[in-house]
Design goal:
The protein has 284 residues and is α/β, with parallel strands linked by helices. It has one domain (4-271): Uracil-DNA Glycosylase, subunit E (3-Layer(aba) Sandwich), CATH 3.40.470. It contains 10 helices and 6 strands; from the N terminus they run αααββααβαβαβαβαα. Strands 1-3-2-4-6-5 form a 6-stranded mixed sheet, with helices on both faces. It starts with a helix and ends in a 13-residue tail after the last helix. The structure holds iron/sulfur cluster (SF4).
């Protein structure tokens, strides 16, 4: 896992707020292959960005600290997040995702170019199971597992507010479900109940996961505080939605259209208790 003297980074379990988590993860050097790759890409650059200084480090989550909706991707892109330092920013995948978030009223603008471009997201946070750009967009299972404590701690710190997750792609789905099912090692939350066999990924799939502590108390989370006095606002279920990844492979081929993406995002926003206001369209 990341952290400890060997990695030269902070143990995620010791971090107690999202700002500190974001700062700590950006210093992580626990995966030798990914550290070498992200830094090589940052040094060699793509010709179109040769005058820019690449971020070249792990990319922290982006969004509000009291997010009700979490969007989980795969890993930063070499010349996207690894260049700009912000999730889904500066590449075609981000162009598609933020355009859809803006269309359903969850983002202030349809474009994401760089930190400082004015982009805000509403009630939402974006993150990934692996925080460093991997060669060929393919982290190894070992790298995914090594990065897991960052995502687990992020979920623990969001637990008081997060009510829905959109998972972009089957890889992220496979990475996220075990995290949801595992208690926070720092004792921050007991996780959610993930059925066995685990629900299969698919575009538009929606599963409701009860909070593990709601189950233990014999109360459904909507049913008020149980005998153990669990706060129903904390021991709340999680609505998990599958969505095809916003990769160029999917969006260029029409496997994932803007309408399909907007539909999942809007459903998840409603399930999260958000009431976003889509921007006025011409003719409205
Ligand atoms: S992938 Fe995760 S664990 Fe590995 S170096 Fe990057 S931030 Fe650290």
């Amino acid at each position: 896992m990341p952290g400890g003297a060997e990695a030269g980074t902070v143990d995620p379990a010791r971090v107690h707020d999202l700002a500190a988590l974001d700062a700590a993860v950006s210093q992580c050097r626990a995966c030798p292959r990914l550290v070498a790759w992200r830094e090589e890409v940052a040094a060699t650059k793509r010709a179109a960005f040769r005058d820019e200084t690449y971020w070249g480090r792990p990319v922290p989550g982006f969004g509000v600290p009291d997010a009700r909706l979490l969007i989980v991707g795969l890993a930063p892109a070499a010349h996207g997040g690894n260049r700009t330092g912000r999730m889904f920013t500066g590449d075609r995948s981000g162009d598609v995702l933020y355009a859809a978030l803006h269309a359903v009223g969850l983002a202030s603008q349809p474009t994401a170019v760089a930190i400082g471009d004015g982009l805000e997201v509403y009630g939402t946070r974006l993150t990934a199971p692996v925080r460093c750009a991997p060669p060929a967009n393919k982290p190894t299972p070992e790298e995914r597992d090594r990065c897991r404590p960052w995502l687990a701690r992020e979920l623990a710190l969001l637990r008081g507010t997060v009510r829905a997750v959109v998972v972009l792609g089957g890889w992220g789905w496979q990475a996220l479900l075990p995290v949801l099912a595992t208690p926070d090692p720092a004792g921050g939350h007991p996780g959610w109940v993930v059925p066995r066999p685990r629900p299969a990924f698919g575009h538009g799939v929606h599963v409701t996961l009860d909070a593990a502590d709601a189950k233990q108390s014999g109360e459904h989370a909507d049913g008020g505080a149980g005998p153990s006095g669990i706060d129903p606002q904390v021991a709340a279920p999680l609505e998990v939605f599958g969505c095809y990844h916003v990769s160029q492979q999917n969006t260029f081929t029409g496997r994932l259209t803007p309408a399909m993406l907007e539909d999942v995002l809007a459903r998840a926003a409603r399930a999260a208790g958000l009431d976003p206001t889509p921007p006025a369209r011409p003719g409205d």
